[in-house]
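for the writeup, i need someone to sanity check this before i put it in the appendix. the sequnce is what the collaborator sent (i think, or maybe the updated version? ugh). structure was predicted straight from it, no edits. if anything looks off just tell me and ill rerun, i have time this weekend
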Amino acid sequence: PTGRYENLVTVMSFKPEFHLAGGLNLPKIIDCVGSDGKERRQLVKGRDDLRQDAVMQQVFQMCNTLLQQNTETRKRKLTIRRYKVVPLSQRSGVLEWCSGTTPIGEFLVNADKGAHKRYRPHDYSGFQCQKIMMDAQKKHSEEKYNTFMKVCDNFQPVFRYFCMEKFRDPAVWFEKRLAYTRSVATSSIVGYILGLGDRHVQNILIDEQTAELVHIDLGVAFEQGKILPTPETVPFRLTRDIVDGMGITGVEGVFRRCCEKTMAVMRNSQEALLTIVEVLLYDPLFDWTMNP
């Protein structure tokens, strides 16, 4: 408003080396040096339209504002974790690197130090479970169900150990487990309303300091997942490991109440949310076709 920009941090330089992140289009991880001397890590993506991600972050911001205005959701500190997205063109953009987070899949099924391997070494591995279920795809429904139940018996959830490992103090452990449960509830309901898909364990990060979830890679939304070769039929990710992190009450109690309160706020504010989302409806450059 003042037109004075002396105190704004600007880009001074970039580190000469970069790293490759996992993914189909091999995004690059770069380090930017600001005029304040601090290094900020960024993710540069090519061959990917990030405008939908940017709009989703705007929707999340609106949701946070609405949740903050409501008494019930404000006292429960319900919020959705966001990150910066800057689309540079239809096919490229820059994203803020979510420091201090780890993908849920990395904690659970990492080949060397995953929690499943450490806490239940005699269970099936994630790879074994996947192979068994893939082999059962062409079988009869009942046989497929029996195979699934056998896999479940031999692959028990272990996500409760995340909070036990990271937060040794009992009071802090309880506080972070509560924050985790609330975060799952809020992001699940908002994700359901937006038809957010592709919620595999590498696309959901967990903050190692706050235990809150951060959803990344928001390119599959508005129920586009339902037209994939293998349609996504679940409203949000609520697997046994996700529930395991909530403690003894599971989805009852804190999780259910937070879901109800979040849904009530979103339903009462639907016009405000539609205003943002309709940008995509009228954007002639937006590519609605899926590339399965």
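The longest helix spans residues 170-193. The chain has a mean pLDDT of 93.
thx in advance!!
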